[in-house]
Amino acid sequence: MRILIIEDDPLIGDGLKSGLRLLGYAVDWFSNSREGDQALGVVHYDAVVLDLGLPGEDGPSKAASRGWTREQTTI
Fold this sequence. Notes:
Helices cover 40% and strands 19% of the residues. By secondary structure, it is α/β, with parallel strands linked by helices. Helix 1 links the parallel strand 1 (2-6) and strand 2. The protein is globular. Residues 56-75 are annotated as: Disordered. Keywords: Phosphoprotein.
């Protein structure tokens, strides 16, 4: 399973990335929405962890703008 993390706080982002990798997941972590969007354009992710308070765009707005729903995408 490949997981994308978009989180601007380095302690949270690195902690999530490290913990999920220890559990055997492939993880990419980006600290801003723009880089996360670029990764989504080239890599298939099975799950996305979004920060609720990203600078410039919050997690729920990003999910809505991409057309994600809980039924379709693990967020």
